[in-house]
Structures are given as structure tokens and as C-alpha cells.
Design brief:
The protein is mostly helical. It has helices spanning about 5-30, 35-50, 55-65, 70-80, 85-100, 105-115, 120-130, 135-150.
């Protein structure tokens, strides 16, 4: 006997909700960031070339915990101090990918943009961050400082 229209609609609804739940759970799964062997070798070779004990320590910690946004943020700040700006941008962006809910990751990226003299990107990023984190005084101060320095 063939199912009637109401039974078919019920079956369809159940299948639809099941698929929707599966897709929702898949989308909510935590993002993992993997580092290729080449990226590790490049970072290690930079730490040897730059002869920075801080950089070597952070690289060693990253080998143990590749999904730690704080370590990427810390390494981005070290690269910024050493004027390795492309590497600093990559690490700051990687920190944001891992944890987009931390304003400090965005602020590090804005600092790197500013060091690159890319004030337009720094301004756009800081404006975006102030909308997302309106109570973050450090972000507001950086944005005010950027406005002040660009006006001069």
C-alpha cells in the first residue's frame, strides 16, 4: 500500500530536520589549523637566521600545540619587533582564524599593518574591531592614535 500525502510529508520533514542537524553540527565543529612541514621548516630557518631565543622558544611551543592562537599572536609580535612583516601578518591572521573572539589578535594584525605603512587596512580593521568589541578600550585608543597620526 502506498503512503498517503501526509505520511510522505512527515517522512520528508524528518529527513529534512535530520540533514539540517547534521549540517549544523558539522558547521559548529571546531576549526583546526594544520601547519605543513614546509611552514615549520621556514619558521625554524627564520629563527636560526634571526638568532632570536624568543622566536626559537615560541616555535618549539607551536610544535607541541599548533592550535594555540596566543602562540601565533606572540610570534607575530616577535616578527614585528624583528621587522619580518610578511611573517607577522601570516601569524596574526592565523591567530584570528583559530580564535576570532579575541580582540588582541586583531590588534596585533592592525599593528603589523601600521608598521607596513598600510594605514588604510589598519583603520578598516580597527573600525571593524570597535564595532565587534565596543567596550575594548585598547582598540579605541589605537584607532584614536591612528586618526591622530594620519592627520599630521
Amino acid at each position: 500500500m502506498w503512503p498517503n500525502l501526509l505520511q510522505m510529508q512527515t517522512i520528508f520533514n524528518h529527513k529534512f530536520y535530520f540533514i539540517l542537524c547534521v549540517v549544523g553540527l558539522w558547521a559548529c565543529s571546531t576549526a583546526t589549523v594544520e601547519i605543513s612541514e614546509e611552514q615549520v621548516k621556514h619558521a625554524d630557518s627564520l629563527s636560526i637566521k634571526l638568532n632570536s631565543p624568543q622566536l626559537k622558544a615560541v616555535n618549539a611551543a607551536l610544535l607541541k600545540d599548533v592550535n594555540n592562537d596566543s602562540l601565533y599572536n606572540q610570534r607575530a609580535l616577535i616578527y614585528l619587533q624583528l621587522r619580518q612583516l610578511p611573517e607577522a601578518v601570516n601569524d596574526a591572521q592565523r591567530a584570528i582564524i583559530i580564535d576570532s573572539s579575541s580582540s588582541r589578535n586583531y590588534l596585533t594584525l592592525a599593528d603589523v599593518y601600521f608598521a607596513q605603512n598600510n594605514t588604510r587596512m589598519a583603520k578598516e580593521l580597527l573600525e571593524k574591531v570597535t564595532k565587534r568589541f565596543p567596550q575594548d578600550t585598547e582598540c579605541l585608543l589605537k584607532l584614536a592614535e591612528l586618526y591622530y597620526l594620519v592627520q599630521k
